[in-house]
TrEMBL record:
InterPro entries: RmlC-like, RmlC-like_jellyroll, RmlC_Cupin_sf. One of its GO terms (molecular function) is dTDP-4-dehydrorhamnose 3,5-epimerase activity. Pathway: Carbohydrate biosynthesis; dTDP-L-rhamnose biosynthesis. One of its GO terms (biological process) is polysaccharide biosynthetic process. NCBIfam families: rmlC (TIGR01221). This is dTDP-4-dehydrorhamnose 3,5-epimerase. Its EC number is 5.1.3.13. GO terms for cellular component: cytosol. The record marks Y138 as: Participates in a stacking interaction with the thymidine ring of dTDP-4-oxo-6-deoxyglucose. It is an enzyme of class 5 (isomerase). It holds the Pfam family dTDP_sugar_isom. It comes from Geothermobacter ehrlichii. SUPFAM superfamilies: RmlC-like cupins.
């Protein structure tokens, strides 16, 4: 497993070791001991999520307020996405900064974002299936969104058409008007 730093120190890109052979491949998608040895951080995941989306879907930017803030370990097992983490920690020196990385079934890459980040992704393939672990349970009453195209964030989404959004995402406020952790 390789841990690759990103522009925001707490956001990590992970490349698992892939064991290929004539049958296909095997990889450990998460290993608690290896994670703690390599990142120096302990983490406990309590929920596994799985979403399927068609090309052009953009889900996000989502986060949960305290006490339900979620760290997320995201991977794409079918297709290809552009995955984004936005620092929404008010006292962070990188507040409002974002990290974007391509995750795909072919590159096996994973993106880790600790609690305090909004998360979203854009689907670049005909279909994408995204699996992600979270460090806190889903709490709808604490679920919040920031608009994906907030000019203050200026996320450089690799769009070639208007994205397909949920009603919640269509109505999301800019970060300046959002209720932040
Ligand atoms: C997130 C979640 C949703 N749900 C139910 C609630 C709704 O009836 C349905 C769809 O939920 P939603 O439209 O919020 O799903 P996404 O737009 O994919 O939301 C996710 O998108 C971004 C990318 C995230 O990082 C978050 O995990 C999450 O906000 O699943 C649950 O039962 N449990 C859950 O953990």
């Amino acid at each position: 497993m390789k841990i690759i730093p990103t522009e925001i120190p707490d956001v990590l890109l992970i490349e698992p070791q892939v064991f290929g052979d004539a049958r296909g491949f095997f990889l450990e998608s998460f290993n608690q001991r290896r994670w703690e040895d390599m990142t120096g951080q302990s983490v406990v995941f309590v929920q596994d999520n799985h979403s399927r989306s068609v090309r052009g879907v953009l889900r996000g930017l989502h986060y949960q307020l305290p006490p339900a803030e979620q760290g997320k370990l995201v991977r794409c097992v079918v297709g290809r996405i552009f995955d984004v983490a936005v620092d929404i920690r008010k006292n962070s020196p990188t507040f409002g900064r974002w990290v974007g990385r391509y995750l795909s079934a072919d590159n096996f890459r994973q993106l880790w974002m600790p609690p305090g980040f909004a998360h979203g992704f854009l689907v670049l393939s005909e279909r994408a299936e995204v699996l992600y672990k979270t460090t806190a349970y889903y709490a709808p009453e604490h679920d919040r969104a920031i608009r994906w195209d907030d000019p203050e964030l200026a996320i450089d989404w690799p769009l070639d058409a208007a994205p397909k959004l949920s009603e919640k995402d269509r109505l999301a406020p800019p970060i300046a008007e959002a209720e932040l952790p």
